[in-house]
Specification:
- The protein is about 0% helix and about 40% strand.
- By secondary structure, it is mainly beta.
- It has one domain: SH3 type barrels, CATH 2.30.30.
- The chain is elongated.
- The mean pLDDT is about 85.
Length: about 120
């Protein structure tokens, strides 16, 4: 396997940083670049070291599986491959289009992700 490429921050030379994202597992996002541009799906997994996410129904790849006891047929299995985080954006609740979000304080100190265009709440943090 190849080397793991990570973004290095700070003074320690080899320390891998875990990048913070505004997306979480279960969020609705739209793919904004690549062959699946325009598809809307749910975040299935996040890899904070590599800066990648898996989107349900997006970036499907084919894995060739040998027959085994668990899968006696074998064959070609379709599964989601990961996308870079910069290729997905939150979905605006009103227009269903890609939108940038900001963190905003609500009443009683509750923080929420708010769509910048429509000022509607995307998710409570």
């Amino acid at each position: 396997m190849g080397r793991l490429h990570v973004k290095e921050r700070g003074k320690s030379a080899g320390a891998a940083s875990l990048v913070k994202f505004k997306v979480r597992v279960g969020d609705q996002v739209v793919i904004v670049a690549g062959r699946d541009k325009g598809k809307v799906g749910e975040i299935l997994a996040i890899d904070r070291i590599r800066g990648r996410v898996k989107v349900k129904g997006g970036c499907m790849s084919v894995r060739h599986q040998k027959p085994s006891e668990a899968n006696p047929e074998g064959g070609r299995m379709r599964q989601e491959a990961s996308l870079h985080i910069s290729n997905v954006m939150h979905v605006d609740p009103q227009t269903k289009k890609p939108v940038r979000v900001r963190v905003e304080r609500r009443d009683a100190g509750v923080r929420a992700l708010v769509a910048k265009g429509s000022n509607l709440e995307v998710r409570v943090l």
